Amino acid sequence: MHFRRSMLAGGSALAAAAVLALGGAGAASAGTHPGAAGQAAAARAALHGLRVPGTQHRLAGAQRVKGLTKVSSTNWSGYADTGTAYSKVSSSWTQPAVTCSGSATQLAAFWVGIDGYSSGTVEQDGTLAECYEGTAYYYTWWEMYPSNDIQTVGDAVKPGDKIAASVVRTGTKYALKVTDSTTAGNSLSKTETCAAATCVDSSAEWIAEAPSGSAGLYPLAKFAKWTAASDAVSTTAKSGNIKTFADDEITMASSADTMATPSALNSAGTSFSVTWDHSS
Q: Averaged over 113-141, what is the pLDDT?
């Protein structure tokens, strides 16, 4: 998913991003009775046309410490590496549970990707939690924008499932892979092509996201702490961890509240957590 950012002044300027859509049709998982199956189908159908505009805003007061730039975003929290020629990004996590309240749709996506932070393309995959009519639903998904919108794949993901996700570029081909080693039927593996002039490979990301629609940001679903572990990244020149390259620590914040906060990286630069603070 693309995103809307509020970058603190003092870091490099971010390019305006295109408007993307979140889609993904398919039959819902069967519930224990027809009513549950019908609601699950409606929940998945509600993901059609979910849009994430790439508007960016700049705020004052950048902090830069030992190569780390701390920035603020309206819908991302986590880390992004900047530079050139990124060829691989990966992570693993335990799918966090979301707590649903009320009937309003709430969303929380967890993913890794190449591009999208300082460019208008997106090559990414991960998991998505949706609160629909007070019930939580979980999916795996992938996206190559502008070639396609988000494609939901597995709809049987459960809290506690062990997830591994990666995006690997070879030339103009991108291998997108999500493995749910706990629950069968949710894993995905796709290889897509994107011309070098279009997908510029200028960033790598590990992100918890609040997607948005035509009316603005959806409330961020209240998720248990998300820990991205075994984080690795490569360019065509070298391989390493988040600290190996210039990295931005991203806090999700609205004009009124902090919505999600990343922890500091561990000493190895391979793990961090994101804590939910507020829905909007």
A: 94
Take residue 136 and report the two structure tokens written for it: 């939580």
Domain holding 153: CATH number? 2.60.120.700
Nearest CA to 221 among 178, 177, 159? 159
The position carrying tokens 């969303």 is 107
User: What whole-number distance in Å separates Cα of residue 208 and Cα of residue 231?
Assistant: 14
Tell me the per-residue pLDDT of 55-96, one tens digit each, with 9 for 90 and over.
333 333 344 444 578 999 988 999 999 999 999 999 999 999
> Which of 15, 55, 71 is CA-nearest to residue 214?
55
Q: Answer whether 188's CB lies under 8 Å from 125's CB.
A: yes
* Polymer length in residues for the chain: 280
- Decide: residue 267, CB within 10 A, 0-12 exposed, 13-18 middle, 19+ buried: exposed
DSSP letter for 269, please.
Answer: S
Domain hosting 234: range is 5-276
Grouping H, G, I as helix, E, B as strand and the rest as coil, residue 67 is coil
Q: Are 54 and 115 in contact (CB under 8 A)?
A: no
Number of domains in the chain: 1
Sign, CA dihedral 191-194-195-197, equals: negative
CA dist 108 and 91 (Å) reads 17
Q: Structure tokens of 184?
A: 């069968």
